[in-house]
Amino acid sequence: MKAILGLPLLGLLVLGTSCTPKAKTYATVDGFTQGSTYHIVYNDPQGRDLRTNIEELLEDFDNSLSVYNPSSLLTRLNANDPAAQPDPWISECLEISRTISDDTDGAFDVTLRPLIAAYRIGTEDTPHLLSQHEIDSIRVFTGYKKVKIDNGRLVKEDPRLALDFNAIAQGYSADLMARMFDSLGIPDYMVEIGGEIYCKGHNPSGDEWKVGIDRPVEGNMVPGEDLQTIIKLTDRGLVTSGNYRKFAYDENGNKVTHTIDPHTLRPSVHNLLSATIIAPNATIADGYATVCMVIGLEKSKQLLERHPELEAYLVFSQADGTMGVYTTPNIRKRVIK
Prior knowledge:
Elements: E1 11-13, E2 26-33, E3 36-43, H1 51-65, H2 73-78, H3 88-103, H4 113-119, H5 132-139, E4 147-150, E5 153-156, H6 166-183, E6 188-193, E7 196-200, E8 209-214, E9 227-233, E10 236-242, E11 247-249, E12 255-257, E13 272-279, H7 282-295, H8 297-306, E14 311-317, E15 323-327
Antiparallel strand pairs: 1-8, 2-3, 3-6, 4-5, 6-7, 7-10, 8-9, 10-13, 11-12, 13-14, 14-15
Helix pairs in contact: 1-6, 6-7, 7-8
């Protein structure tokens, strides 16, 4: 699944931020969270400074769902702390994850934390490509059907099972931020957390928000520097998942990507370079973008045919070394270039 390595997947363009009277009520808040960055633009007719609200929500989120925070609620649940009980955020993430897992025949699995740790994904250490024996020994205590919430408590079939919501966490945090803005009566906003985006209303120019999708080539490490396309977006979540930045090499020089196939428990290998998914919210977009990177191009096409509510922009490598693009019909109206 997706591990947070601190590099956003998207180049984000927020156009038209000056030269119009409307722009005077827009504010921008930037910072660091979840091992990555965030960029938020909002229009508050009351002119409130919401930086503290934003930072407090992100801190609360880290204390709940982070696998890197040693005192977070999720860390305590993974360690089987008898005093720890799932909060509403963890409960909702587990429910959403289970729905995506059931829908994709297990191509999405939030119980792969022990495997991610064994591969050393998301750490400063050299990745370790697991042997089949090591994989089989970990398989015993992974599997999304082996965990549930019963009477307010997390129930695991094996105490070694551990949860990792990184495949939807940043998308979910973007949605939580959107809920907060909605509750405060903010009519226009763009939330980007680690590349996961939710937009509502209009940008400072009065148009739809515009999001740039980076070209998925190795070496394209600066978001926005080399764009594949630009897409119009409002009242939807958008997430791009890809392996062109988030990978490393093991001690033997083998490439280890951050996307693990829950069926083989090995890094996924196929010709899909990046998957951009637009959905009613960023959590769903995040989850299905991850699924596409697990199952590859052809199975992704079949999945998208079953889900007309999803829009997709898929970039893949072709036999001659060039890049191809597959788009669902419903996303084409959004593409600016």
